[in-house]
Specification:
The protein is mostly beta strands and 258 residues long. It folds into two domains: 167 residues, no CATH class; 91 residues, no CATH class. It is built from three helices and 13 strands. Strand 7 and strand 8 form a beta hairpin. The longest helix is centred in the N-terminal third of the chain and has 13 residues.
Length: 258
């Protein structure tokens, strides 16, 4: 069997299991360590998720399913190629979880990402881990997808939180790490609103319970408020909303969010 055919067979077998827990076989570990197939984009050690220590690695495909190389003008970042997130045990290096992010037909051509921890500043701090994916064209027009990653009953749970416009959606986290408020801007084309104009917002609250988030749409603002493109912090926009429309955010202590 030629090396190309061998790689194709391995690729097919591995991608069958590219989003699951406990991929601990030597073949999987060897495959995802092959720098001829993947670019190792990011490695983050000592990441605490619900009291358990992990290492997080992000890989970028160098070849598509036909073993054709992604365009050289995408190097060295490979932002136009699929990415794979791998979580390994912080103690013995065993693969615990694999998640593949591919492009859909007619999808945005660029895929960027970042990991973070709510209000916490350091990924070494204990708590849920969040992943933000941004798909876009490099200019106006994008999509933001948020995931949360927790560790429960001895396994990783990797779940989508919400999908929204990457341009007019803003998120704040409660200091207790169990509540999230999202503002989704309503872009009114009939009124010729520009990207940087004030907008009405849909307000959604997510509450963490039973190892998942419950979603509650609080409502829509009657008035328009600043766009964050004007560099006004979201905390100040929320205060403006509570001042003008107090019933929308009734019972929510905004000082706990940032």
């Amino acid at each position: 069997m030629t090396k190309i055919n061998s790689l194709l067979l391995t690729f097919s077998l591995i991608t069958m299991f590219a989003s699951c827990n406990a991929q601990n076989s030597d073949n999987a570990k060897s495959y995802y360590s092959d720098t001829a197939i993947f670019k190792i984009d990011t490695t983050i050690n000592n990441v605490l998720i619900d009291g358990k220590q992990f290492s997080v690695k992000v890989l970028r495909d160098k070849f598509d399913e036909h073993l054709e190389r992604f365009t050289e003008n995408d190097e060295p970042n490979f932002e136009q190629s699929p990415m794979t997130v791998i979580l390994t045990n912080g103690n013995d290096g065993k693969i615990i979880y694999i998640k593949k992010f591919d492009f859909e037909p007619n999808d945005y051509p660029s895929l960027k990402y970042s990991f973070y921890k709510g209000q916490l500043q350091n990924l070494n701090d204990n708590g849920r881990l969040y992943l933000m994916l941004n798909k876009g064209y490099g200019g106006s027009g994008s999509q933001s997808i948020r995931y949360y990653i927790n560790f429960n009953e001895n396994k990783i749970n990797f779940s989508e939180l919400f999908t929204s416009s990457g341009e007019l959606s803003y998120i704040v986290y409660n200091k207790n790490d169990n509540e999230i408020i999202v503002l989704d801007g309503i872009w009114n084309m009939k009124e010729n609103e520009t990207h940087f104009a004030s907008h009405r917002y849909t307000i959604t609250k997510y509450t963490y319970r039973n190892n998942g988030y419950d979603k509650k749409v609080i409502g829509q603002t009657k008035f328009k408020y600043s766009s964050l493109d004007e560099e006004k912090p979201i905390a100040e926009i929320l205060i403006d909303i509570k001042t003008k429309e107090p019933l929308l955010l009734k019972g929510i202590n905004l000082t706990d969010y940032k």
